Structures are given as C-alpha cells and as structure tokens.
C-alpha cells in the first residue's frame, strides 16, 4: 500500500515551493508586468480620487464638513502644536541662558559687571 | 530501499501559531506571553504622534548618550524584540544611556511632513531634549534602515552635525540606484507615485505598500510555515519566529509627503546620493560627514542590496580612516534580532559606541 511518508511530503513541498518561487520571481522582475500593474493601480487610484472629490462637493452642498475639511483642520492643529513647542524651546533657551550667565561670571572670577549683582529668577 | 518515515501529526501548538499568523490575530497578550520589548522605557518627550523614550533604569555612563532613530516603515521594537535578541538590551548592558524614538501612528494632519521635517524638526528636537536631560553637548546618533538615512542627513547637515560625536548606521541605504527589487519596481515606466497616492489625504495606509513587501522575497514567503514546522522543536525558535511575525505584521501608515519623497525623490531621482536633497533649505551631502562612522550592512538583505550602503565609503570620515564598515552574513533584521550572528553584530556596536 502506498504510504505518503515525511520525506516524500517534504520533497513535494520543496518542489512546489521552488516551482512557485521561480515563477513568482520571474513575474516580479518582469518590467512589462510591473509597468502594467503600476499603470493599473494609478488609474484605479485616480478614479478613487475623482470619486472622493465628488463626495466632497456633495458634502459641501449639504453644508457638512468633508474629509478634506477635517484633514485641513488637522494640519492646522499640527502647525499650531509645532509653533507651541518652538516657543517653549525658545523660552527654555532664554531661561537657560539667564541662569548660566551669573554662574559663568562667578566662575570667571571678578567680572566687573557681575560684581554686586544677584541673579533673579 | 529505505523505508519512508511515517508522516508525523502536526503539533497542536504549530496549528495555533500558523492560524494566528495567517489571520494576523495577534493581541497584546501574545506580546506579553513572548516577553517582547524586555527593556523598560520611560517617555521623556512627546509631540504629535512621536515619543522619545529613555531606556533602562540606570542612566550613569562614561559615554555620550545614544539616540536611536528607527525606520518609518515598521515599529521600533525590532530593536528590543525579545530578551537576548535585543539591541537596546545590549547597549544598556554596555553601560550606555540609550534614547529611542517611537514614531507612533502619524495622523492625517501630519501629511505634509516629509523627510526634511522629520530630520530638521523632530530628530533635532529629540536630540535637544537628550542634551538637556543629560547635560552632554554631543550625542551618538544611531539609525536603522530609513532611520539610518535620516541619521545620515542629520550628520551631513552643516549646522545639525555639530550635535553629534559619532554616527552608527544599521542597514541604512544611501545610493538607491540599482539597490534591489524596490528600485526596479519604482524605476519602471508608468510608476507614478503622485497618481498612485492621489486618493489619499494626509496618510498613505500601511496596507497599500505592505501588500507588495512579501513579493520582495517570494521563495522565503512560500517556505515560511514549512521552515517553522521543520525547526519547531529547536529551543527558542518558535518564540523568535512568532515575535518576528508579530513585528512584520504590525505596520505603520506613512505621511503622504514622506512616501512621495521616498519613492520619487530618493528612489527615482536618487537625490540623496546626488546631494540634491535639502534639509532646512540647505542641500545635504553625506560626503561631508567627518565624524567616526560605523556602518553595518546585511549581506542577504532583501530590501536594499549592499551597494546602497557601500556609498558611505565616499564620506570624509572614510578617507581619514574613521569608517568601520562590516557586511554581516544575515538578513535585513536578523542581523540584530534573530540570527546567531547577532552576537558578532552586538560586539561590533559595543566596541564602536564605547570607544
């Protein structure tokens, strides 16, 4: 009676993988195939973009915010957050500079302009 | 004739692992069960979607802090995958103060942020925070994959590079012309990234570009589950296999601007290699890098071939003998995460960062 053993199964799997792998490798390196695939994806996505634009117009006609509007608001929020962090950094740099100035003067010894002055926070 | 071995029944655990992998039904419990991300991390700065973490608990060190910039394509925990399979763990064991950026999940509002923004604003800001926290004037910048490309831009910029004492690149591409299958695909006639992403506002979904990743190495994909079965009884194999599978299926969306730049500016025009890409309004040329550099390249990398990283030899540091360049006989991530050769990788990194 025929028994499919482990070795036979392994051999079969290896052969199948090699055959499929070789074919797939040929396909993914075939410039004509890639070019056609790229054009097909680009055409589909362009169609999707046109559909999204139509949806935006319909939402605008109903006085409702579209996804484009929401993305624009999110971009503004990102810009505002960026600006806030920028200002925080500038303030931190200013405080650091003020705090290090008297210490640097003291380290330098008798710096005339630092004499008798006390650093205020 | 030798008698054929009887076909053994597949272990129940194997069926469960394959089922989770095929259905991508991984949960937080799976990550905990495997002990993924073993190093403790404390968030020290947060902005937009990204967070800067300080790794470990002991921060005393004799060396400049290390800031790790991960890739944008996958999550950063490939660098802290499992105990003994973790670059971060090794860096901490070497007595380094390690900071790790987590890019998180970008939102649609960040869609206009390209590589220039990532490097000149976010990486710069992360380094500024590290300098303030540690009191050090310079840091050692490390970058993996696309993160390595960003680290190279930072080190090449005339102003930004003043923050750095050394640069460590892990499978980081520079010259993307003829750099492998991705370069072939993007260089094909009709590959128009603007049209392909025209329908996406702000973000390019991970599933859009990750669908093509298995095709970079089809034979490996086909033998994936057979490989698991054949090595199932090997100690630790199934854990590392599953951890890598979890990481591989945990993909991140790209900001549209960064995606377009990656494909159009870096792949199709090869602008970074040609020193035509600008950061903060100034073209950056990696040939100007003049600090010690360690570049580790994977010999069997299916994402970028060795040629993409070899260009680092053209920098000033290389001409002065300050470049350590090693080709490791492993894959794109296995050189730090899985392959036994990672021990060699870790030793090279430790030796460089603790000089």
Rounded average pLDDT of chain B: 93
Distance between the termini of chain A: 94 Å
Count of runs of 4 or more consecutive helical residues of chain A: 3
Shape of chain B: globular
Order of helices and strands of chain B: HHEEEEEHEHEHEHHEHHHHEHEEEHHEHH
Oligomer: heterodimer
Strand arrangement, major sheet of chain B: 1-2-6-3-7-8-13-14
> Count the helices of chain B. How many?
16
Mean pLDDT of chain A: 83
How helical, in percent, are the residues of chain A?
over 70%
Please summarize the sheet with the most strands of chain B: 8 strands, mixed
* Low-confidence runs of at least 5 consecutive residues of chain A: 111-121
Taken in chain order, the helices and strands of chain A follow as HHH
| β-strand amount of chain A | under 5%
Strand segment count of chain A: 0
Give the radius of gyration of chain B: 20 Å
Uncertain segments of chain B of ≥5 residues (pLDDT<50)?
Answer: none
Strand content of chain B: 15-25%
Of all chain pairs, the largest interface belongs to:
A-B, 46 and 41 residues
Brief summary:
The complex is a heterodimer of chains A (121) and B (355). Helix content of chain A is 79%, strand content 0%.
Strand and helix map with partners:
The complex is a heterodimer of chains A (121) and B (355).
Chain A: H1 6-28, H2 31-61, H3 67-107
Chain B: H1 12-23, H2 28-34, E1 41-47, E2 50-55, E3 66-69, E4 80-82, E5 85-86, H3 87-93, E6 98-102, H4 115-134, E7 139-144, H5 146-156, E8 164-170, H6 181-186, H7 193-196, E9 203-204, H8 206-210, H9 218-222, H10 224-230, H11 237-249, E10 254-255, H12 256-268, E11 278-279, E12 282-283, E13 293-298, H13 306-310, H14 316-319, E14 323-328, H15 334-337, H16 342-353
Helix pairs in contact in B: 4-5
